[in-house]
Amino acid sequence: MKKTRITIITAIIVLILVVIGFFSFGRKSASTNESKQTIRLGSSPGPYSELFIKGIKPILEKEGYKVTNKSFNNLLNADIALSDDQIDLNVDQHTAYLKNFNKEKNAGLASITKIPTVPTGLYPANKKVLRDVSSGDKVAIPNDPANTARAYNLLVKAGWITLKDGTDPITATNKDIASNKYDLHITELDSSTIPRSIKNFDYVILPGSVAYSAKISTRKILLPETVRSEYQLVAATNKKNVNKKWAVAVKKAYHSKEFKKYLEDHNKDNYWVTAKSK
Q1: Whole-number Å distance between alpha carbons of 254 and 263
Q2: What is the C-alpha separation between 196 and 193, in angstroms, rounded?
Q3: Fewer beta carbons under 10 A from the terminal one: N or C of the chain?
Q4: Does residue 234 come out as left (phi exceeding 0), alpha (psi in the -120 to 50 range) or beta?
Q5: Does 121-226 match 33-117+230-270 at the fold level?
């Protein structure tokens, strides 16, 4: 009986030690995963993901993070994957687009930090200079809500149209046009198709990412937009991830001296517009 009791007590002690060891190892593993976590980037065609991979990824890897990349054909699919936790991060959208996605998809994406942006520009097509604009000219602009409004603001800057008093510049549409000085024929198209249709227009408006993908140099811009804060690009993630250690590391990398030096060395012709605030 005494031997049986000792055996039982010994077994209980061993079991307790095993449980303590398991949880101790679990905490250590969790700590290791947190400090050397894999960050899953979802990239879309354009310069922003490329800038991250070349300028930010090396900084994060020095901090002990592993960065993987999953490519998407367009930003919408990347945002859907981000919303579904299939990826952790993307760097190809501005605040206005993010807010519109959240509204349409009832999603919860959020900004980690503002990042360098390539401005939308008014580019030449059949006509090569702004002063050649004349009555009835054809102009192609993007058809997605955020970039459509962006294009109308640029046409206002050119002095070609005016918008009705009280128009929200972030949601402007063709219905908000108050005057059209040259009776322009404005066609809204999927922005990715505009470069292929350029011969059909006198002027075109292209977001920076589209011009980049079509290999149209920003040196050709006839008039760049004044980048509003709503159109500043952001590193985006799920709202629940914003304060996680890896997300904070991404923010620090974008504002690091190392990245600023990289940007200075690779910002030919002032291609990148940087945020004034974090």
Answers
A1: 10
A2: 5
A3: N
A4: beta
A5: yes
**What are the residue ranges spanned by the domains of the chain?**
33-117+230-270, 121-226
Chain center to CA of 11: 57
pLDDT (tens digit per residue) in 16-63: 554 455 544 444 444 444 445 999 999 987 889 999 999 999 999 999
How many DSSP H helices and E strands does the chain contain? 9, 12
Per-residue pLDDT tens digits for 78-99: 999 999 999 999 999 999 899 9
Let me know: does 139 contact 127? Beta carbons within 8 Å. no
CA angle 61, 65, 67 (to 5 degrees): 80
Mean pLDDT across 188-204:
96
The Cβ of residue 226 has, within 10 Å, a number of other Cβ atoms equal to 10
pLDDT of residue 34: 46
Q: Cα(273)–Cα(83) distance, rounded to whole angstroms?
A: 27
- 8 Å CB contact between 56 and 250: yes
For residue 7, pLDDT beyond 80:
no
Computed on alpha carbons and rounded to an integer, the radius of gyration of the chain in Å comes to 25
What CA–CA distance (Å, rounded) separates 42 from 208?
A: 19
* Nearest to 205, CA basis, from 154, 261, 239: 154
**Residue 242: partners with Cβ closer than 8 Å, 6 or more residues away:** 110, 111, 112
CATH number assigned to the domain with residue range 33-117+230-270, chosen from the 4 options 3.30.9.10, 1.10.357.10, 3.40.430.10, 3.40.190.10: 3.40.190.10
The CATH code of domain 121-226 reads 3.40.190.10
Other Cβ atoms within 10 Å of 267 Cβ, number: 13
